[in-house]
Amino acid sequence: MDAHSATLASPATTRDRVRQVTVLLGAVVAIGGAAVGSGAFGGQPIAEAAGGALSATATPLAPDNPAFSIWSLIYLGLGVFAVVQALPSRGADPRLRAVSWWVLGSMLLNALWIAVVQAGSVGGSVAVILTLVAVLAVVFVRLVRLAHTAVGASWVTDVTVGLYLGWVSVATLANVAAFLSTAEVGSLGLGATTWSVVVLAAGAVLSVAYAVFGAGRPSVALPVGLAMAWGLGWIGLGRTRGALVDETVAVAAFVAAAVALVAPVVMSVRSRRARATAG
User: Fold this and answer.
1) Following DSSP, what letter does each residue of 107-169 receive, concatenated?
2) Measured between alpha carbons, how far is 251 from 248 in angstroms, rounded to an integer?
3) Closest CA to 237 of 227, 247, 226
4) How many CB atoms neighbour CB 9 within 10 A?
5) 252, 222, 223: which is closest to 235 by C-alpha?
6) What is the DSSP string of 48-78?
7) What residues have CB less than 8 Å from 36, skipping those under 6 apart?
8) What is the C-alpha separation between 253 and 203, in angstroms, rounded?
9) Residue 153: exposed, middle, or buried by beta-carbon count in 10 A (0-12, 13-18, 19+)?
10) Who's near 232: CB < 8 A, 6+ residues apart?
11) Exposed, middle or buried, 169 (CB in 10 Å: 0-12/13-18/19+)?
12) Residue 275: is it exposed, middle or buried by C-beta count within 10 angstroms (0-12/13-18/19+)?
């Protein structure tokens, strides 16, 4: 199949129509539940839940408050995705067949994460967010491996999932740090600053791994890098001001953000040149 063709593998089936409707309705429930649970309509904000364990100053790896505005873009993308995948013409789209259930699962997991945090269980939230990252990683792999079909549906899916995976990957680092802090495990022998730098370095390595694997599909790899750079950058900015200043962590976060931003660009260019040479 040509990478930019809209050729569908087979006609839409009843199972496809059931999937389309279920994903659309499930998305409405998941996004609406997440908005209510996060305090968008006057409830308790996530930053104040669980004793403030996930606030912008709870740990050295907590992103500053403006970082979370990316959720508005992610939720918008998920909403558009839910509508696009439900279009009658997209029923037999092979890429949407391969990822729609998984994307719905990720939305439900995100809503569950909010509910768990609001219930005060930081440890439980770690289990949920790790599962969420794993689900999004499955979607990422499938989108990289499957050729584009309809241009609009493919780009909406790729960009949305890329931003979602990139942001949640960074959020996972902060979530784990919050759990370790609330569990009072101490600095594990290295000190909070050193451990924060180690974790940020791991985040940078993860961003490179995403870039390498997704080199042939920049429509999804670049958004992953952008979202990770956004989150890591706001960790750095958060450590330059406010109640938890740490210049070492700030520098490490800015370096990791630069790596996350540059890696997919470099790998995508290399992949394109390799294809051109081979062709």
Assistant:
1) HHHHHHHHHHHHTT-HHHHHHHHHHHHHHHHHHHHHHHHSPP-SHHHHHHHHHHHHHHHHHHH
2) 5
3) 247
4) 11
5) 252
6) GGGGGTTSTTSSTTPPPGGGGGHHHHHHHHH
7) 43
8) 9
9) buried
10) 170, 200, 203, 204, 253, 254, 256, 257, 260
11) buried
12) exposed
Q: Please indicate, yes or no, whether the overall pTM of this predicted structure exceeds 0.90.
A: yes
Task: Single out the residue of 185, 219, 146, 208 nearest to residue 59, CA to CA.
Answer: 185
- Encode 234-272: b = buried (16+ Cβ within 10 Å), e = exposed: bbbbbbeeeebebeebbebbbbbbebbbebbeebbeebe
| Torsion sign, CA atoms 54, 57, 62, 63 | positive
Residues of the chain with pLDDT below 50 are 1-7
Measured on CA atoms in the order 212, 63, 233, 254, is the torsion positive or negative?
negative
Q: Give dist(CA 269, CA 223) in Å, integer.
A: 15
Q: Which amino acid is at 269?
A: V
Cα distance between residue 106 and residue 108, in whole Å: 5
Predicted confidence at residue 81, as pLDDT, reads 98
**Do residues 64 and 237 make contact, with C-beta atoms less than 8 angstroms apart?**
yes
The tokens of 124 are what?
């439980």
Identify the CA nearest to 60 among candidates 198, 227, 238.
238
The full set of domain ranges for the chain reads: 14-272
Residue 191 is given by DSSP the state: -
At residue 6, what are phi and psi to the nearest 5 degrees?
-110, 20
